[in-house]
Amino acid sequence: MSETPTRPRVLSGMQPSGESLHLGNYLGALVNWVKTQDDYENLFFIPDMHAITVPQDPVELRGRTRRTAAQYIAGGIDVAKSILFLQSHVPEHAQLAWVLNCITGFGEASRMTQFKDKSAKGGQEMASVGLFTYPVLMAADILLYRPVGVPVGDDQRQHVELARDLAKRFNHRFGDTFTVPEPFIQKEGARIYDLQNPTAKMSKSASGPNGLINLLDEPKVTAKRIKSAVTDTGTVIAHDRENKPGVTNLLEILSTLTDTPVGALVDGYQGRMYGHLKADVADAVVARLEPIRARTLELLDDPAELDRLLAHGAAKAREIASVTLADVYNKVGFLPPLGTVA
Ligand code: TYM
User: Fold this and answer.
1) Known catalytic residue: 201?
2) Which of 15, 17, 170, 300 is 20 to 30 A from residue 203's alpha carbon, by CA?
3) Can you tell me the mean pLDDT for 48-63?
4) What is the DSSP letter of 2?
5) Which of 16, 278, 320 is CA-nearest to residue 145?
6) 204 an active-site residue?
């Protein structure tokens, strides 16, 4: 391999598909990106090409993309330490995805559970081919940069597994090319559940807004949603995913935000009511999200500066991505364009 990073590299991204990132994105991914920012060479990008695998309004997509970038920075991504960029600014993602499409089995792609879930919603006939090959583009996003790890929430495990399989397959057929990346999934916050339906993961596409905590919601909306979270019959505050999924979700949110083990929280709530727990969770979430929201809005006041940061990030990302793509093109047997050396 031609370039070796000085620190091990990680890469991850979040889709710009909603009005705001949500608490699951924040606790499952962003918090962990920020926590280890000094330990790795970091690439954090916005998969805007993934967003168009389902219909998007072009004006809204542009707005959501800038808003996502602003939330990365407001949430703690430091552009002096991390490369921040848009997927569509680095054409090598689509170019590598094509090569990987050609070594992915149809059956293998058909087994991806997120495709099955998403396509089931609108009917398989209506699902785009882009949605079907989505995990292959994600594998390209990852493998282009040869990272050791991909910090994600639990729902992305299967996709990272596909990236690993494709890396191994390519290396086996064409010689050592890709690093086989590990999913970096924290125990805490790896899966945050919907507040109204605490057996389903919190998600932008959930059935109603009341189960969702958005980073950009007004603090009073956030507090109200937490205080109206579905709990369970009974009164005892216990960590029990089977029988008390609502209370368990609230405990896990509080544990992640306050860095307190769930067991210690449960001990502290002996003899207290669900209402006490909800009030504490609401306070902790609002205290954490309020400054992020304020900083995001400030950053969005200067879109030209955001665009400049993204352009700078894309140039740095391309320096890495172009080297990997040239290596891959050469290995699969494409003739180099005239005037370049293979
Ligand atoms: P996306 O945009 O759905 O989610 C972004 C990140 O948030 C995590 N996450 C959650 N974590 C805990 N609880 C939840 N309820 C929850 N909901 C979401 C996700 O696990 C993810 O880490 N396919 C990816 C985007 C992507 C990507 C990549 C990620 C495209 N290319 C390359 C890593 C590397 C996705 O749709 O994530």
Assistant:
1) yes
2) 300
3) 96
4) -
5) 320
6) yes
Q: Is residue 121 annotated as a catalytic residue, yes or no?
A: no
Q: Quick one: how far is CA 134 from the chain centroid? A: 14
Q: Does residue 47's CB lie within 6 angstroms of at least one atom of ligand 1?
A: yes
Same CATH topology for 9-190+303-332 and 219-298: the answer is no
Q: Domain map of the chain by residue range?
A: 9-190+303-332, 219-298
Whole-number Å distance, alpha carbon 203 to ligand 1 midpoint, is 10
Over residues 21-28, mean pLDDT: 96
Give the single-character DSSP code of 154: G
Topology, domain 9-190+303-332:
Rossmann fold (3.40.50)
Find out whether the beta carbon of 211 lies less than 6 Å from any atom of ligand 1: no
| C-alpha closest to that of 267 among 278, 251, 284 | 251
Cα–Cα distance measured from residue 81 to residue 68, given in angstroms and rounded to the nearest whole number: 18
CB of 314 shorter than 6 A to ligand 1: no
Please tell me the chain's helix, strand, coil percentages from 3-state DSSP, rounded to the nearest 5.
55, 10, 35
Looking at per-residue confidence, does 231 or 187 come out higher?
Answer: 231
% of the chain at pLDDT higher than 90: 87
Catalytic residue among 81, 116, 118, 227: 118
CA 211 to chain centre: 19
* CATH fold for domain 219-298: Tyrosyl-Transfer RNA Synthetase (1.10.240)
Check if the beta carbon of residue 203 is closer than 8 Å to that of residue 191: no
Regarding pTM above 0.90, the answer is yes
